[in-house]
Each structure stands twice: as structure tokens, then as C-alpha cells.
Automatic annotation (TrEMBL):
Matches recorded under InterPro entries: F420H2_bilvrd_red/Heme_oxyg, Pyridox_Oxase_N, Split_barrel_FMN-bd
One Pfam short name: PNPOx_N
All copies of domain Pyridoxamine 5'-phosphate oxidase N-terminal, residue ranges: 16-132
GO MF annotation list: coenzyme F420 binding; oxidoreductase activity, acting on the CH-CH group of donors
Organism expressing this protein natively: Saccharopolyspora hirsuta
Annotated protein name in UniProt: Pyridoxamine 5'-phosphate oxidase family protein
Length: 158
């Protein structure tokens, strides 16, 4: 697993495209695992804190409970309107969401001032980042996938 910074150092061009998409919209879709293993999707907002991509959650939320029990997540960046998708990339990230506690959590509470001081902060440890877009010549999908072990790989799908 890698921090956002490690991903950005290994794949700077891809990280720039992914970050631009995430920053283009405030709300994204987070998938977590319920106790029975079925998926749950929730809206979320992401932010960068030092080397990490993070998100907060209200205390007692289902997504926080899911992640505290099983840290695996998938995040789908808001694709925007159809014209945005055709001109940009679809972005998906996966990995583990690790709760931030202690001094770092207290600093976040002071800085961000979430609705409750008991709000959760999660740091995203990345195992996979994928972008999908239409090729410049409009003849195929261009899929770029990064993993910590495999680096950046590009695939064509016609």
C-alpha cells in the first residue's frame, strides 16, 4: 500500500490527472463493506493533508463503522456531466482507509472544525488507481492502472 505522495512520486502525470478530477468536484462515491460483506455506497469529500489523501466522517456513520471493521474501500470520483466524461477521465481508487487518531486527529479538528469533535478522519492507503478515458482519436478506451508493485500500465479496449 502507498500514500498519495508515494503514488504521486511513482506516477506524477497520472497523479496530476487524478488529482485534477478529484478537485473538479466536491462530492464523490465511496464504497465500503457492510458486516455481511455486501457493498455500501456513500457520498464523501476528499482532501489532501501532507502526504495523504483523506476524508472525514460523522461520528457513528455507517461508512465509518464499516471502515473501522474492514478498512477496504473503493472510491469513484464524480464523473460529472456526460460532456465532462468524454473530455476527461473516469477515476477510481482502491485500498485501505486507516483511521487517524491522536495529535494528528486533534490538529485536523482544530483546522477543519467539523460538525463534531468526535468526527472521524481516515487516511487512504492506495493499492490501485485507475483512469479510463476515450483515446484522442476516439477509436478505443484508454485504461491506465497503477499499483505499488506493478507501477503504471496502459491498456486499450476497443
Amino acid at each position: 500500500m502507498s500514500t498519495w505522495q508515494e503514488f504521486a512520486e511513482q506516477a506524477p502525470e497520472m497523479a496530476a490527472r487524478v488529482r485534477a478530477r478529484l478537485e473538479s468536484f466536491q462530492h464523490h462515491v465511496l464504497a465500503t463493506l457492510r458486516r455481511d460483506g455486501s457493498p455500501r455506497v456513500s457520498g464523501t469529500e476528499v482532501a489532501w493533508r501532507g502526504p495523504d489523501l483523506t476524508f472525514g466522517s460523522m461520528p457513528g456513520s455507517r461508512k465509518a463503522a464499516d471502515l473501522l471493521r474492514d478498512a477496504r474501500f473503493a472510491l469513484h470520483a464524480n464523473p460529472g456531466a456526460p460532456e465532462d466524461i468524454m473530455g476527461g477521465v473516469d477515476v477510481k481508487l482502491a485500498g485501505r482507509a486507516v483511521e487517524v487518531t491522536g495529535d494528528e486527529h486533534r490538529a485536523w479538528i482544530e483546522e477543519v472544525k467539523p460538525p463534531s469533535p468526535d468526527s472521524h478522519l481516515f487516511r487512504l492507503e492506495l493499492t490501485e488507481v485507475t483512469t479510463t478515458g476515450v483515446s484522442e482519436d476516439q477509436t478505443h478506451l484508454a485504461i491506465t492502472r497503477w499499483t505499488p508493485a506493478g507501477g503504471v500500465q496502459t491498456f486499450k479496449r476497443t
